[in-house]
Automatic annotation (TrEMBL):
Residues that bind substrate: D25, L26, N27, H64, L65, G66, R67
Record note on quaternary structure: Monomer.
Cofactor(s) listed in the protein's UniProt record: Mg(2+)
GO molecular function, one term: ADP binding
InterPro entries tied to this protein: Phosphoglycerate_kinase, Phosphoglycerate_kinase_CS, Phosphoglycerate_kinase_N, Phosphoglycerate_kinase_sf
Cross-referenced HAMAP family: Phosphoglyc_kinase
Class in the EC hierarchy, top level: transferase
Listed name of the protein: Phosphoglycerate kinase
Binding positions ((2R)-3-phosphoglycerate): R41, R122, R155
Known catalytic reactions: (2R)-3-phosphoglycerate + ATP = (2R)-3-phospho-glyceroyl phosphate + ADP
GO cellular component: cytosol
Family, as annotated: Belongs to the phosphoglycerate kinase family.
Length: 406
């Protein structure tokens, strides 16, 4: 993917007094009382917004929240205004819609350095259809476009891709830039040895990632319930562990591919098993090749933790996507937490550690080590697609960076 122009390339003259349509990803979890339970995404959007405010721009923020079907009050963005205002140090105004006359009036009233939040852009089905007329209405509010919503960059929606046809320049925000630098940079040109740790429950959702990584990594560690499909493919007994029967041949071919590419692929040698899927299950450690009937594997065992940790000692770049076990249950969190601690330690020694979205992020935050990692991706689906080597429509649509001529 070509390097894209970034908001940092814009000067005060490009921004002062200009209306800037900024697509952010403020899709945060809310509790039953509509309080934000995790404001990571709000905080991640602040640097770009503050930069625009500081250069005298009139900032128009657009985001989605949840998966509303039409106008759905529980998915209104109103609960976000207090936290956003607090983080930005200004009173953020909010519109009751994202297009229309009332919105235009509010946009006209934004002072230089002021911020207006538009209502949930997914209240319109045209957003996800990437309807050109709807995109044109959104674009008509502004003079230029900044996309800082990496979490939705893998979707070609009106507010992520459609608006770029009507607004120039269209540039990336700082968060988008950082995601691309780390994820594309790490995969395209990693410092070696380069290791990937892939976990999660299903091989099927990670096939693309595993196949793509086998072309690039020196070491691949696998954990999570997906390992049982590999064990069964090798003829081991897996008890009542989760297995994707239709993926056994695929598992075999991935193991063969790793061999032919000379990738050191490590599966756990021992697992923590349980007699039921519950927090209070009876548990014990057994060799990976012998899970008894009626028992299921829910975490990697202590020997595997040791082997995995040692294999990472030589690395210079590590990408982690997907937990090692059912870390939501304290009893089966040891594997995932050990990996988080190991990566935090490696980070301190100058290793580039990238947490590729989704459950791994939750796990790292749970152990309180998020700030120790080189980069934590804010986009689960988007980071997976990048690691699979796919292009992201929301990124492709932005202006390419021009290489300064000497």
């Amino acid at each position: 993917m070509a390097t894209k122009r970034s908001v940092g390339d814009l000067k005060e003259a490009d921004l002062k007094g200009k209306k800037v349509f900024v697509r952010v990803d403020l899709n945060v979890p809310l509790d039953d009382n509509l309080n934000i339970t995790d404001d990571t995404r709000v905080r991640a959007a602040v640097p770009t917004i503050k930069f625009l405010m500081g250069h005298g721009a009139k900032v128009i923020l657009s985001t989605h929240l949840g998966r509303p079907k039409g106008v759905t009050p529980k998915y209104s963005l109103k609960p976000l205004v207090p936290r956003l205002s607090e983080l930005l140090g200004v009173k953020v105004e909010m519109a009751n819609d994202c297009i229309g006359e009332e919105v235009k009036t509010m946009v006209a009233a934004i002072p230089e350095g002021g911020v207006l939040l538009l209502e949930n852009v997914r209240f319109y089905k045209e957003e996800e259809m990437n309807d050109p007329e709807f995109a044109k209405k959104l674009a008509s509010l502004a003079d230029l476009y900044v996309n800082d919503a990496f979490g939705t960059a893998h979707r070609a929606h009106a507010s992520t891709e459609g608006v770029t046809k009507f607004l120039k320049p269209s540039v990336s925000g700082f968060l988008m830039q950082k995601e691309l630098d780390y994820l594309v940079g790490a995969v395209a040109n990693p410092k070696r040895p380069f290791a990937a740790i892939v976990g999660g429950s299903k091989v099927s959702s990670k096939i693309g990632v595993i196949e793509s990584l086998l072309e690039k990594v020196d070491i691949l560690l696998m954990g999570g319930a997906m390992i049982f499909t590999f064990y069964k493919a090798q003829g081991h007994s897996v008890g009542s562990s989760l297995v994707e029967e239709d993926k056994l041949d695929l598992a075999t071919s991935l193991l063969e591919k790793a061999k032919s590419k000379r990738v050191s692929l490590l599966l756990p040698t021992d697992v923590v098993i349980a007699d039921k899927f519950a927090t209070d299950a009876n548990s014990k450690v057994v060799p990976a090749s012998g899970i008894p009937d009626g028992w299921m594997g829910l975490d990697i065992g202590p020997d595997s933790i040791k082997t995995f940790s040692e294999s990472l000692d030589t690395t210079k770049t590590v990408i982690w996507n997907g937990p090692m076990g059912v870390f939501e249950f304290e009893k089966f969190a040891a594997g995932t937490e050990a990996i988080a601690k190991k990566l935090a330690g490696l980070s301190g020694k100058g290793v580039t550690t990238i947490i590729g979205g989704g459950d791994s992020v939750t796990a790292v935050e749970k152990v309180g080590l998020a700030d120790k990692m080189s980069h934590i991706s804010t986009g689960g689906g988007a980071s997976l697609e990048l690691l699979e080597g796919k292009s992201l429509p929301g990124v492709l649509a932005l202006d390419d960076a021009t290489v300064a001529s000497l």
